[in-house]
């Protein structure tokens, strides 16, 4: 894809440099993007920087600014001495919301690149970069309106013509308080609703909005001596003998002058805070509130690990990466290393190199493999220099980890997708583990892919990027120079460098894989969900005291409810998809709109009572295990058992401590786990993903099978894998069972080429939705027609180049209705030097009015991962 101007630099002309080059005192104006995601406000607005705030306003600051009648949050994207607007028409910035700007100039530029590439508003891109805790929170207040307050009526009552006594009381209350939140108002006057509405409508009262104060850093009281050791001892002597506790406290600080948290101190010495306060009042001790960082790992000790001597393959790979780091060059590596080849050790040593240069590193891992085990490996090597960002942290914890980055207290961030926005200023290395994972793509706006954002950031920093996987995505593989899929010169320059580790550490063999044909099992009279082979293998593990991992991939195997008499499947009345049965609550739920209904007793269509749920859930497998292997200890890991904070960690901890024989779960058990006693992996049904309407179905199947098989036999004991399937001849299953990425790649690339899918072209999915089909059809057709027109114009300027552009559709989406809105989609396939983002932005701009007036929704997904 072509991005005008190549890199993002220069998009906000003149705004990148002033911080460094211009003296702060020359700054008079700030350009601010305000928190209103709409086309009319999608540009920087000029504000005056008041002199008292000058020190605190930087590019990347979050500020509160007046905008019309309200105060809004905004981000400073530029600073200047002059404004094109006359100063009398400009308003000053009201608040600077954080002492430390949450973003920096480079990230502000990156937001610009994101809004262009992914076709979203600037504010949406900026908001995506900061932790949730910093997102705009507004408070609404009720005050007496200006006109009313100054209404020339000293008694303050007379202007209330025809006001009821209740209303007069309400106004008096508000006047006395200054401003009141709606909640306070309603708790004082429970029936105020209608009165309030009338007073607001008549302009007696007004609603004002302010940006809620910044999230506070956590403060803890610390105690330390205020005088010398000798004085402490002298005071202690002079105190009357009854003041035993005070004497003790003084002697304590005479022994150690280190500051200590008040809570810790009182507990240690078994005294009350009053004793401490008494001495502080005398001026002998100081008690002071200090900022502390909420550290989710505070109570954990991480044993320091030393770098391991590398295997030959690891050494070759590390040298390549280190050379690039030493040259401070930008380069993308694709590290294809089989499971257990020791990729993590390579990451760790590459990071060490980067830190030695005084630069910083970001490590992305998929959310579900951000396990304690993973964190331990990084904390163990780099200790306090590591910050961890994942969605299970509380808002406060995440805010603190983020602040540590800005304060340069940490050098390495490990986290899920959004950690790519860590506000480092001299980034040297980005590592993306399991780079093929679809969770790196954000499914809501901005629909960015962390891999592409990483490459863009690394370009700006002259940093290296390492994409690691045992099963690289076809898109990434095609970007390695070896692949002929991309031919242009520009592409050859930015080609990824392929690095390979084909062997497991210490020559450990990859596990033996048995593919089991479930049709044959049925023929042989086995109706259980466990084939004879897998059954026997589990039994053996139980006898030997070894462990088993069982994968049940529930996706596409949904537990729907069907009538056995007439075939009716219970569907959501608002969305065209079947409801999913939840056994615990005995309810039917819609995964799209959240509808929840009791399980039907009779078929709504034919009234038959033979209506029941189908499909295999993890719970059913668990029950079956208990029935077949009495006494077996099973840990089940799925969305239901891991919803609580820390549950994930606890379950894995129990499994590691051998408190269970079997770890049974969904995709969660397939990734990243490394347990020495796991010698058996079973896949209950391999082909559940294969039949999804998605051109990546085969690739996802291959990846999942390879990943989960890689959990077996990673240490001394050899591993064994059983893959149960109804389509044992499918190439993705055959190649996965042979650990044969190359053959899979050959077959899959050939199919993609024939069908015209990535990496042989790029995709954009445009989905339009509306409550009425006729309007939707008209909008869809005209959207497609406009795009085609634009292409006709664009192609003239591209004459001679090998460019391709095609719009497919509009057609009904695979899920044709969600929440009572019908859905149509257009699929765009293109290749070559085409600025599709600009064309799409122009096209959707033409629909602004329909979007505003008729509530048409247009969603644009560049390089979509989900095609529903
Ligand atoms: P991958 O991420 O490639 O699947 P890991 O990084 O988890 O593999 O490594 C697999 C196992 O090999 C881990 O237990 C790791 O500690 C060990 N290991 C890695 N490198 C070495 C090495 N150079 N020498 C000895 N053991 C190693
Ligand atoms: Zn629904
Ligand atoms: Zn029926």
Account of the protein in words:
The protein has 868 residues and is an alpha/beta fold. The chain has seven domains: 19-130, PriA, 3(prime) DNA-binding domain (GIY-YIG endonuclease, 3-Layer(aba) Sandwich); 139-212; 218-292, no CATH class; 312-505, P-loop containing nucleotide triphosphate hydrolases (Rossmann fold); 508-556 and 616-754, Rossmann fold (3-Layer(aba) Sandwich); 560-614, no CATH class; 762-862, Alpha-Beta Plaits. The strands form eight sheets. It has a seven-stranded parallel β-sheet with strand order 14-15-13-16-17-12-18, sandwiched between helices. Helix 2 packs across helix 16 (450-461) and helix 8 runs antiparallel to helix 9 (244-255). The two termini are 23 Å apart. 40% of the residues are buried. Residues 308-311, 314, 337, 339-345, 505, 674, 714 line the site of adenosine-5'-diphosphate.
Offer a concise description of the structure:
Component of the replication restart primosome. By secondary structure, this protein is α/β, with parallel strands linked by helices. The chain has 28 helices and 33 strands.
């Amino acid at each position: 894809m072509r991005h005008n101007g190549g890199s993002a630099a220069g998009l906000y002309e003149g705004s990148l440099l002033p911080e460094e080059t211009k003296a702060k005192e020359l700054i008079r104006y700030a350009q601010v993007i305000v928190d209103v995601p709409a086309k009319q406000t999608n540009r920087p607005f000029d504000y005056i920087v008041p002199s008292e705030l000058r020190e605190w306003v930087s590019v990347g600051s979050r500020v509160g600014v007046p905008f019309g009648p309200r105060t809004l949050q905004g981000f400073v994207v530029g600073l200047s001495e002059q404004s094109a607007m006359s100063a009398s028409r400009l308003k000053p910035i009201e608040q600077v919301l954080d002492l430390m700007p949450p973003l920096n100039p480079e990230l502000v530029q990156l937001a610009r690149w994101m809004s262009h590439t992914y076709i979203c508003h600037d504010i949406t891109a900026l908001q995506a970069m900061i932790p949730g805790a910093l997102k705009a929170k507004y408070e609404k207040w009720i005050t007496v309106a200006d006109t009313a307050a100054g209404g020339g009526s000293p008694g303050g009552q007379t202007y209330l013509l025809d006001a009821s006594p209740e209303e007069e009381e309400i106004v008096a209350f508000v006047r006395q308080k200054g401003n009141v939140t709606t909640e306070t108002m309603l708790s004082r006057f429970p029936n105020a609703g209608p009165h309030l509405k009338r007073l607001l409508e008549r302009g007696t009262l007004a609603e004002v909005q302010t940006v809620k104060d910044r999230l506070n850093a956590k403060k803890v009281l610390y105690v330390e001596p205020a005088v010398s050791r000798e004085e402490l001892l002298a005071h202690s002597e002079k105190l009357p003998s009854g003041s035993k506790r005070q004497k003790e406290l003084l002697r304590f600080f005479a022994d150690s002058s280190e500051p200590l948290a008040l809570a810790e101190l009182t507990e240690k010495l078994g005294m009350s805070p009053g004793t401490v306060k008494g001495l502080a009042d005398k001026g002998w001790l100081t008690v002071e509130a200090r900022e502390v960082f909420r550290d989710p790992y505070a109570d954990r000790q991480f044993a320091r690990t030393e770098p391991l001597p590398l295997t030959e393959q690891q050494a070759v790979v590390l040298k390549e990466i280190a050379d690039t780091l030493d040259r401070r060059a930008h380069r993308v590596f694709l590290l294809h290393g089989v499971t257990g080849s020791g990729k993590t050790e390579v990451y760790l040593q590459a990071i060490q190199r980067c830190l030695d240069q005084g630069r910083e590193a970001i490590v992305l891992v998929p959310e579900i493999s951000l396990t304690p085990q993973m964190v331990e490996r990084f904390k163990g090597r780099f200790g306090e220099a590591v910050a961890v960002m994942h969605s299970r942290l509380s808002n406060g914890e995440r805010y603190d980890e983020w602040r540590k980055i800005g304060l340069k207290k940490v050098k390495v961030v490990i986290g899920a997708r959004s950690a790519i926005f860590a506000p480092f200023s001299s980034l040297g290395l980005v590592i993306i583990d399991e780079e093929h994972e679809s969770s790196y793509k954000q499914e809501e706006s901005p629909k960015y892919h962390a891999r592409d954002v990483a490459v863009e950031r690394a370009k700006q920093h002259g940093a290296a990027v390492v994409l690691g996987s045992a099963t690289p995505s076809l898109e990434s593989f095609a970007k390695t120079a070896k692949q002929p899929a991309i031919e242009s010169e520009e592409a050859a320059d930015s080609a990824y460098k392929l690095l390979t580790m084909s062997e497991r550490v210490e020559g450990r063999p990859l596990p033996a894989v048995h593919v089991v044909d479930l049709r044959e099992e049925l023929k042989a009279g086995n109706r259980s969900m466990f084939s004879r082979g897998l059954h026997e293998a589990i039994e053996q593990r139980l006898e030997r005291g070894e462990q088993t991992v069982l994968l049940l991939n529930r996706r596409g195997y949904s537990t729907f409810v069907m009538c056995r008499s007439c075939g009716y499947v219970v569907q959501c009345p608002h969305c065209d998809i079947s409801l999913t049965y939840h056994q615990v609550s005995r309810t039917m739920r819609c995964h799209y709109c959240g509808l929840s209904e009791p399980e039907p007793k009779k078929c709504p269509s034919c009234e038959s009572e033979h209506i029941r749920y189908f499909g295999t859930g993890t719970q059913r497998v668990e029950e079956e295990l208990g029935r077949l292997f009495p006494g077996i200890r099973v840990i089940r890991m799925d969305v239901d058992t891991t919803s609580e904070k820390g549950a994930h960690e606890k379950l894995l901890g129990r499994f590691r401590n051998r408190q269970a024989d079997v770890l049974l779960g969904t995709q969660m058990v397939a990734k990243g786990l490394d347990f020495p006693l796991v010698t058996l992996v079973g896949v209950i049904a391999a082909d559940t993903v294969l039949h999804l309407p998605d051109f990546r179905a085969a690739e996802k199947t291959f990846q999942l099978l390879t990943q989960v098989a890689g959990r077996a036999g990673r240490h001394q004991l050899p591993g064994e894998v059983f893959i149960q399937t109804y389509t044992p001849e499918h190439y993705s299953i055959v190649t996965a069972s042979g650990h044969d990425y190359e053959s899979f790649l050959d077959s899959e690339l050939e199919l993609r080429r024939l069908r015209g899918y990535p990496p042989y072209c790029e995709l954009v999915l445009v989905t339009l939705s509306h409550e009425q089909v006729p309007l939707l059809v008209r909008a869809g057709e005209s959207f497609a027609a406009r795009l085609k027109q634009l292409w006709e114009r664009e192609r003239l300027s591209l004459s001679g180049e090998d460019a391709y552009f095609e719009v497919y559709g509009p057609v009904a989406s695979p899920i044709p209705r969600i929440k009572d809105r019908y859905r149509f989609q257009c699929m765009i396939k293109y290749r070559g030097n085409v600025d599709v983002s600009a064309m799409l932005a122009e096209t959707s701009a033409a629909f602004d009015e329909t979007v505003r007036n008729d509530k048409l929704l247009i969603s644009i997904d560049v390089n979509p991962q989900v095609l529903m």
